[in-house]
Amino acid sequence: GIDGMEVSHVLCFFFSSFRHSQETFPCALVHWFKLMVNEPNPDTGMWMVQPSFHADSSRELSIIHVDTIIRTCHLLPIFDSDFAPENLTLHNVLDIWPSFYVNRFIDYHAFKRAS
Q1: Which of 2, 3, 46, 55 can bridge 101 by disulfide, Cβ–Cβ 3.0-4.6 Å?
Q2: Is the pTM higher than 0.70?
Q3: 34 - beta bridge partners?
Q4: 11: CB partners within 8 A, 6+ apart
Q5: CB-based contacts of 110: which residues, under 8 Å, 6+ apart?
Q6: How far does Cα 23 stand from its chain's mean position?
Q7: What are the residues facing 76 on neighbouring strands?
Q8: How does DSSP assign the chain, residue by residue?
Q9: Closest Cα partner for 9 from 45, 46, 53?
Q10: Over the Cα atoms of the chain, what is R_g?
């Protein structure tokens, strides 16, 4: 995998909802992405991911502790020869587009992690 890490899309943060024994646990609801192949693309050097779904087509979601989030990542849609849908925006691209590159060239830390 990508340096032992996984890719997810944070859908929502819960900063005061989970309490146990007087301790609050800040959490996030995430939609998981899965690797398309077990190595980076040979042409770009970037990992390729796609949203993960269960057999019934529902999203693979989890609630995770925010301390398990290491850093943000930049996902680039993997374009082909078809036109992008007219309704594609920065707000819905992660829900509409089927596959993405994990952009390791966005900054130094991303380059070191995803290389």
Answers
A1: 46
A2: yes
A3: 50
A4: 28, 29, 30, 31, 61
A5: 71, 73, 74, 103, 104
A6: 28
A7: 101
A8: -BTTB--EEEEEEEEEEEEETTEEEEEEEEEEEEESSSS--TTT--EEEEE-B-TTS-B-EEEEEGGG------EEE---SSPPPTT--TTTHHHH-S-EEE-TTSSHHHHHHH-
A9: 53
A10: 16
